[in-house]
Amino acid sequence: MEFSPPQFVTNLKCLLCGSSYPHGNIFTCPRCGIEGILDVRYDYDRIISNLKSEIRNRPLDHWRYRELLPISPDIPVPHLHIGWTPVYDVPRLARHVGLRKLFLKDDGRNPTNSFKDRASSIGVLKAMEFGFNTIACASTGNAASSLAGLSAAVGLKSYIFVPERAPEPKITKLLIFGATVFRVKGTYEQAFDLSKQSCDQFRWYNRNSGTNPFLVEGKKTAGLEIAEQMKEHLPDWIVVSVGDGCTIGGIGKGLEEMRRLGFINRVPRLLGVQAEGAKPIFDAFRSGKDLIPSDTNTIADSIAVGTPRNWRRAIQQVRLSHGEMIAVSDEEILEAMRLTAQLGGVFGEPAGVAGVAGLKKAVEENIVKTNETAVVVITDNGLKDIQSAKQAAGKEHLIEPNLDTVANVLEKQLKL
Ligand SMILES: [Zn+2]
User: Fold this and answer.
1) 3-state secondary structure of 103
2) Positive or negative CA dihedral for 211, 214, 219, 223?
3) Which of 54, 139, 360, 375 is the most exposed place for a label (fewest CB within 10 A)?
4) 98 vs 78: CA distance, rounded Å
5) 255 Cα to the center of ligand 1, angstroms
6) Bridge-based pairing state of the strands 269-275 and 324-328
7) Ligand 1 centroid vs 82 CA: distance in angstroms?
8) C-alpha–C-alpha distance, residues 409 and 41, integer Å
9) 209 close to 215: Cβ distance less than 8 angstroms
10) How many angstroms separate the alpha carbon of residue 201 from the centre of ligand 1?
11) How far is the CA of 11 from the centre of ligand 1 (A)?
């Protein structure tokens, strides 16, 4: 079956050299190679009239922004509920962080409990539009399970390449969605290279978000939503954890588009948060120089990216918003994991709550002022990384089945 192209996309533009290409199945800029990340451009004048008159009547999910997404109008969207995740006002966590007002946007509420579902949902539709029946990626974590889940939802085959040391629970999650899993006897980089070679060889669509220009458009919808959900009380800051740079780049782009379309009259400042054990984008931002790849060593595995592909987009978007970047230690992330759960009622994984840790530090360093307001995007649910959760949470009490032992524990707690 033939599908018509997206209606409002005008071209793809290289973020490095500025070359322009027609919409189609391409990845990075042919002139610049892997460094030439392509950005999807739209006809905003046509979008304004369409979107503004219709958006009020549309379902509350991320397809309500379909004019701003690079998808064919002919393909049915997945039936799973993606996006329009809740924004919670969390006063006790705000007090702990030292802010007047703090909100959490809980993206762990997506179908596979990950922000990545926003991108995967676009990935599977692009695969179908370009005539593929199979889609593949290399990942150990959220991108893989998200791709497996969304592929199952639309009936695509998925092939996932994981490094040999990938944890068993994560592999099980891929298998239950029907993905074929290749456990590569080697490192993540080797798994990544093999997935790319296989896509070329066997004609599979490649969902590796660093280089696929369409996936970041899915991530953008979190920014579109914040603008619409918080229109009246737009925060001063939006806080996002940063690994590859696609997420903060996408959210920033979404906010800029909503300003351009007249939904909001200013764009909140972006605070990008990296882990101290993997902070090449933070270093490049602070130094003003090109990115130097780094080793990675942090419990926040979803943002442990030593060679981020989208660093230019991330830095560009943070600067455009007059934002900042900050780096936090694993100890600060574990504390944030515990306190986001205990004071905010939201259980996020380490990368998911790194934003809370970064915001606290930014307040301490007077980057964010105590009378300002912020939204932290919690990108992933904490149950995916039970090991880290255990480290953050402390231990249970194993007791004999009698009241005295309960009383004993309570007494000890009082003394603490
Ligand atoms: Zn280029």
Assistant:
1) strand
2) positive
3) 54
4) 41
5) 25
6) parallel
7) 32
8) 61
9) yes
10) 25
11) 13
Cα 254 to chain center, whole Å? 13
Query: CA–CA separation, 275 vs 252, rounded Å?
Result: 20
Do residues 126 and 158 lie in contact, with contact meaning Cβ atoms separated by under 8 Å? no
CA of 36 to the centre of ligand 1 (A): 5
Neighbours of 280 (CB within 10 A): 21
For 186-220, what is each residue's pLDDT tens digit?
877 788 889 999 999 999 999 987 789 999 999 99
Q: What is the DSSP letter of 165?
A: T
| Residue linked to tokens 């791709």 | 147
Distance 141 CA to ligand 1 centre (A): 30
Q: What is the pLDDT of residues 247-291, one digit of tens each?
A: 999 999 999 999 999 999 999 999 999 999 999 999 999 999 999
Question: How are strands ordered across the β-sheet holding 180-184?
Answer: 180-184, 157-163, 134-138, 205-206
Task: Compute the 3-state secondary structure of the chain and give helix, strand, coil in percent, each to the nearest 5.
Answer: 45, 15, 35
CA of 245 to the centre of ligand 1 (A): 18
Structure tokens at 104: 């959490």
Q: How far is the CA of 1 from the centre of ligand 1 (A)?
A: 32
> Which amino acid makes up residue 19?
S
Residue 81 near residue 111, CB atoms below 8 Å: yes
DSSP state of 9: E
Kindly report the average pLDDT of the chain as a whole number. 94
- The three-state secondary structure class of 11 is strand
pLDDT digits (tens, 9 = 90+) for 172-185: 889 999 999 999 99
Give me the DSSP letters along 199-268.
Answer: HHHHT-EE--TTT-TTHHHHHTHHHHHHHHHTGGG--SEEEEE-SSSHHHHHHHHHHHHHHHTTS-SS-P
CA of 370 to the centre of ligand 1 (A): 42
Residue 93, pLDDT > 80, answer yes
Q: Taking the C-alpha atoms of 167, 170, 171 and 173 in order, what is their torsion angle to the nearest 10 degrees?
A: 160
Query: How many residues can be counted in the chain?
Result: 416
Residue type, 117: D
Token pair of 182 as six digits: 């290749």
